[in-house]
Design brief:
single chain, H-NOX domain, Arc Repressor Mutant, subunit A, 5-stranded mixed beta sheet, 15 helices, 7 strands, about 10% strand
């Protein structure tokens, strides 16, 4: 069974900073991507991979910079990968780092994704592929990923190291020369994205001391076929136009309404149950804030009318928000 990919929202902040620095409209980017601007405040929140594709594409078009994805990842390097970057940077050799990234990427950063190593004679390819069928923004996402792969290798080989070449999928690459200048190597088109370099550098030793790794505290990435968990994350993130509607969520997940309902039933739950659980969790956290008006809580949860929020909360809990606030610890 195919699933839906998620990634961390940590790339959204740098995207917005780049748009602002270039004089673009951040509001227009989020509006065209149909995403809530609040995502920028939670870098470790899981977001749909296809949403990240769309946001990155909208941002690049907003400022007219085809090389934006490459600039973002090259500038941020391993640090931009968060906990995954710390783990990879602690590997003893480059080969171990690539193997570690392959094993940990689905857990710490991104699902529906493959990264790995292919060796053919004297050359190695550090490859990247998204396994979910997503059309819009795929090439931009690959270019973003190539910058991060470059950061992995440069951690071991030094900041001036350059690959033999890079590969991007697709029939054409707008802005190729500019992107090549950012990545520091020629780019060719092919069936599998990745970096090509001499195989002997795989034994490069980590030049820095191995880090003491702290436990991973970020929220787990949903399993691609755990539809209840995937739906929960989308409901937590919200929509720019208010509380998410079922049909809109089905569109974002690439499923029909009936298919999603059937898969939730197989997990012993339903859209109404999950929506109620998410509403209660978010609302109770806000109700614990001293002096925060019900109207403001409703607004933060995406309701334009506090009465609609109160009605939804009562349906989910059996009591009004004010009554619940008096009993919360």
């Amino acid at each position: 069974m195919s699933g839906v990919g998620f990634t961390r929202a940590r790339s959204i902040g740098p995207v917005i900073q780049a748009v602002e620095a270039s004089g673009g409209s951040v509001a227009r980017v989020f509006r065209r991507a149909a995403l809530p601007a609040s995502l920028v405040d939670e870098p470790d929140r899981p977001v749909l991979l296809r949403d990240q594709f769309r946001l990155l594409t909208c941002a690049a078009r907003e400022i007219g910079d085809d090389a934006l994805p490459a600039r973002l990842s090259v500038d941020s390097g391993l640090q931009g990968l968060g906990p995954l970057g710390l783990r990879v940077a602690a590997a003893p050799t480059l080969r171990h780092a690539i193997e570690r990234a392959h094993a940990l990427t689905p857990k710490l950063l991104q699902t529906a994704t493959w990264t790995g190593l292919t060796v053919r004679g004297p050359l190695a390819q550090y490859g990247y592929a998204v396994t979910e069928l997503i059309g819009i923004g795929r090439q931009e996402n690959e270019i973003l990923a190539l910058g991060y792969l470059l950061g992995v290798v440069r951690h071991f080989m030094g900041p001036s190291w350059q690959p033999t070449r890079a590969i991007v999928t697709g029939g054409a690459l707008p802005g190729r020369l500019t992107i090549e200048a950012v990545l520091g190597c020629p780019i060719t088109l092919g069936p599998h994205a990745g970096l090509i370099f001499p195989v002997d550098i795989l034994n490069a030793i980590n030049p820095g001391p191995l880090s003491d790794l702290e436990p991973d505290e970020a929220a787990p990435i949903p399993d691609p076929i755990d539809w209840a968990a995937c739906l929960t994350e989308l409901l937590r993130a919200g929509e720019p136009s208010g509380p998410p509607k079922l049909d809109r969520l089905c569109d974002r997940l690439g499923l029909t309404r009936r298919t999603l309902q059937r898969r939730l039933e197989a997990q012993g739950t339903s859209f109404a149950k999950i929506r109620g659980q998410v509403l209660i969790t978010r609302a109770e956290a806000l109700l614990r804030t001293p002096g925060l008006p019900i109207g403001e809580i409703a607004y933060q949860l995406g309701y334009s009318d506090p009465a609609h929020f109160s009605r939804a909360f009562r349906q989910a809990t059996g009591q009004s928000p004010r009554a619940a606030a008096r009993t919360l610890p």
